[in-house]
Amino acid sequence: MFRRVLLAVLGLLVLGVAGLFAIAWRPAIAPIDPPAPGAFAADRIARGEVLAGAGYCATCHTVPGGVRYAGGYAMRTAFGTIHSTNITPDPQTGIGRWSEAAFVRAMRSGVARDGSHLFPAFPFDHFTRITDQDLGDLYAYLMSREPSAAAPKPNTVPFPLNVRALQAGWKLLFLRQGPFTPDRTRDEAWNRGAYLAEGVSHCGACHTPRNAVGAERRDAAYAGALIDGWQAPALTDANPAPLAWTEEALYAYLRSGATAEHGSAVGSMAEVVHGLSKLPDADIRALAVYFADVGRAAARSGDERTVLAGALAASGEGTRQETDRGAGLYLAACAACHYNRAPAPLLARPELALNSALVGDDPTNLIRVVLHGVGTDDGIPGAMMPPFAHLGDAEIASLAAYLRRTRTGRAPWPDLEAKVAEVRRLDTGT
Questions:
Q1: Could you tell me which of 380, 378, 368 has the C-alpha nearest to residue 426?
Q2: pTM to 2 decimals?
Q3: Is 13 exposed, middle or buried (0-12, 13-18, 19+ CB in 10 A)?
């Protein structure tokens, strides 16, 4: 009897494994000879360059200081570190032998030319929304880059999660293939913004929290998430900014990298702004239209003058000698560049009382900016903030607590000193 049960169990296991691999199997697509230089029309390459910028391809496929698109960038996920691949047309280590059909399949289905499944760290769940023409132009642009030999770096995803066939199950559950479908009840600008946001620019990949198996939560689209050590804020009406992100504010921020009312883009968001820089004004405006609607800016507007007056009144706090340790640090290190007065804050003097980093529930962004500063290549071109990593954890905690107390009216952040130590440790990898 026991032997029969054992054989039955083994048989079911064999059938299950065979069924999994049958579901997961994808054919390889035949390799091609690398296209000759000049094989693609100049206008296709030009359009593809704009799309590659809007999709931040270089951000994830380039090691800092390395060859553009040669891969190797380490993406830390909850399941281990995944390194991006080489998407230059190198025939051995890149996509030089990928046909356009193979490229399109990877973008839409997350399947490599050889038939292996890609990990969803590659946002094919967004790229599946992209039109045929845009994918073709993107292919033309990438295949026209200079080939660069760069072997793939090993990932650290443990067994059995590193079994690529299992990704087929993930796709069955979470991948909804198909091009973007316009909403006929919305105007052209809204639909264009939605297409860019949900497809090419894959904004939800950073701004939407993920479930236990790494898929974006459909019930919490754009609700904010922690990504690359930064807190990507909510883009919905849960966004904590004191002033609503209006269409005009969104346009200015995405076009220039900063606004006087919301501050400067830093970290990953600065790279997003750089990537969007080649998009025409109409596309930036379309993104602003879409996200102003997502954030229900119209419903949140109405008390701007009161909020602004309160922020500017608070801006004077800490500009005189006080006994508070945080106030002393603010006066010595921050006030000269952050103090504003009526009638409005200045673009080059980001008003802390209006900044999301100070009013959010998580102090990570504020701590990171204090530790690392803001570079001249981040939000405001040519403007910078020096790093203050030489300050101790207790000093940064005192400064953050003081700013939170005097400028937001929000509850104090708990365990700030420990949080500073945690952020510092994660940044240094110790």
A1: 368
A2: 0.91
A3: exposed
